[in-house]
């Protein structure tokens, strides 16, 4: 007997938010082997049948695929995984992971950059991000070498572009079948568009302000050239911004009222530092656009939820990470505007966090930060998506995600009100803990609620998520537009106090 097709409430289905689960970091091992297939298949079948998830997100590690040498790609482990996902009818969000796995919060697997890339760093360590003390970070190549042909005659931007083209060619049938719907482009440590300003491997502990990461010879020379061009050859990179675990007022740079960040030279540095990051993201996403042109996919970039010191005037932790965000300057809307030229999705973290859960000494405000960044994306006319920063299995965490996914709930819109809905939510991550009976029961309720009390819906047209062929990126956004118009502060969209579809 054929199963009865699900029926949907025409009003509620419009509020359906597709939900994905992030696969384990080492689902394909560092040796390029798809291990534990039987266990994963069992878990995914349960997630699909019992919870009704829409798909999965998976890191596709550069350090695995191109490990043997330049342009020697081996997609075999991932192809085996993807064919299983096709059998299970689970859509794929694929992360082009150009960073090291290991060294960030929650990492339990180590996958370094390709050996031939690290070998270049043995004789030229300035290819890596560097702090003021000269300590190198091997998680991701410094954006200072983005256009330097130091790697067997290729630049990093060319390398990333070639990698993405090879991925498209190797998975052409899976793109054609509609299995791969999202390409998240890794743009920094943890895959996020930021500098590695708070590395646990170098001793950073929450809520330290972090350190600027621009002291490699390439970025140092770039800053010096910019300062000379601006008529200030005497300006140097900051030497008063403290160390990883300082508070803002322990430094001259971030100090209240008279910190260097408020002076002309501080503003010049922060503009340079954040603009370099923006242009880095723009260049690589442009390569992704060329690689996946014509595919029925969305491109996405992840922005980190740096919520600590958000209520301090200096926003110090955001500044060291490259987000030049202050009470009188919007540091996230330029990112959204840059993404808009590529028809990109802005993926943001820390959706599960509430202010009341944070320690007072961190001056943390994740709720306001999420509200600001998502609003910036919507104001720029792009889709926004998100994920939790830390593993949570409780109703409070899920309810906060539900609120952020639908800030105005499913109630009828008020006159003149813009109904807000995230494009998708990804839950971090598939583990044995998630599948424990109590945790899984709460998760099933969460998926039902984020689906607006509807059953799993594979007909994306019912909730307006048809994906057309990717078009060529629009012309570059003028720097003046990014640095002046897009940075003007504006009021975030209003959020309800609580979700109107709570888990419990």
UniProtKB/TrEMBL annotation:
Gene3D superfamilies: Glycosidases. InterPro entries: GH, Glyco_hydro_14, Glyco_hydro_14_CS, Glyco_hydro_14B_pln. One of its GO terms (biological process) is polysaccharide catabolic process. PROSITE patterns: BETA_AMYLASE_1, BETA_AMYLASE_2. Pfam families: Glyco_hydro_14. SUPFAM superfamilies: (Trans)glycosidases (SSF51445). It catalyses: Hydrolysis of (1->4)-alpha-D-glucosidic linkages in polysaccharides so as to remove successive maltose units from the non-reducing ends of the chains. Substrate binds at residues 59, 99, 107, 302, 307, 349, 388-389, 429. Coiled coil: none annotated. The active site is at residues 192, 387. GO terms for molecular function: beta-amylase activity. Its EC number is 3.2.1.2. This is Beta-amylase.
């Amino acid at each position: 007997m054929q199963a009865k097709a699900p029926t949907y409430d025409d009003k509620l289905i419009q509020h359906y938010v597709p939900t994905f689960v992030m696969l384990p970091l080492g689902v394909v091992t560092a040796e390029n082997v798809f291990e534990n297939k039987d266990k994963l298949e069992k878990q995914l079948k349960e997630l699909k049948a019992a919870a009704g998830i829409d798909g999965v997100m998976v890191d596709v590690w550069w350090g695995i695929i191109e490990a043997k040498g330049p342009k020697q790609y081996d997609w075999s482990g991932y192809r085996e995984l993807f064919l299983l996902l096709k059998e299970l009818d689970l859509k794929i969000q694929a992360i082009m992971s150009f960073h090291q796995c290991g060294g960030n919060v929650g990492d339990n697997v180590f996958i370094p950059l390709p050996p031939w890339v690290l070998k270049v760093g043995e004789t030229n360590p300035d290819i890596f991000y560097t702090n003021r003390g000269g300590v190198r970070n091997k998680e991701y190549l410094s954006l200072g070498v983005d256009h330097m042909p130091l790697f067997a005659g290729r630049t990093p931007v060319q390398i990333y572009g070639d990698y993405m083209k090879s991925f498209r060619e190797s998975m052409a049938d899976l793109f054609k079948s509609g299995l791969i719907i999202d390409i998240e482009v890794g743009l920094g440590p943890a895959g996020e568009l930021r500098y590695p300003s708070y590395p646990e491997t170098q001793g950073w502990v929450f809520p330290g302000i972090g350190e600027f990461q621009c002291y490699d010879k390439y970025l140092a020379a770039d800053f010096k050239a910019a300062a000379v061009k601006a008529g200030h050859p005497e300006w140097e990179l900051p030497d008063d911004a403290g160390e990883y675990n300082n508070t803002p007022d322990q430094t001259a740079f971030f100090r209240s009222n008279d910190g260097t960040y408020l002076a002309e030279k501080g503003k010049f540095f922060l503009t340079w530092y954040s603009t370099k990051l923006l242009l880095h993201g723009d260049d690589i996403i442009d390569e992704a656009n060329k690689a996946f042109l014509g595919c029925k996919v969305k491109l996405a970039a992840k922005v980190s939820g740096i919520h600590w010191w958000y209520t301090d005037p200096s926003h110090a932790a955001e500044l060291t990470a490259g987000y030049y965000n202050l009470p009188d300057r919007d540091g996230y809307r330029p990112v959204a505007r840059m993404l808009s030229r590529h028809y990109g999705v802005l993926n943001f973290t820390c959706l599960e966090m509430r202010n009341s859960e944070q320690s007072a000494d961190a001056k943390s405000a994740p709720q306001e930060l999420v509200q600001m960044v998502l609003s910036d994306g919507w104001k720029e006319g792009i889709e926004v998506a998100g994920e939790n920063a830390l593993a949570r299995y409780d109703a409070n965490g899920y309810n906060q995600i539900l609120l952020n996914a639908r800030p105005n709930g499913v109630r009828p819109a008020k006159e003149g009100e813009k109904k807000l809905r995230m494009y998708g939510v990804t839950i971090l991550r598939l583990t044995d803990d998630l599948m424990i009976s109590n945790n899984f029961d709460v998760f099933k309720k969460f998926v039902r609620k984020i689906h607006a009390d509807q059953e799993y819906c594979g007909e994306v047209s019912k909730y307006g998520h048809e994906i057309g062929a990717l078009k060529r990126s629009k012309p570059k956004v003028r720097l003046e537009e990014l640095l002046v118009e897009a940075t003007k502060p504006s009021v975030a969209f209003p959020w309800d106090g609580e979700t109107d579809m709570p888990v419990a």
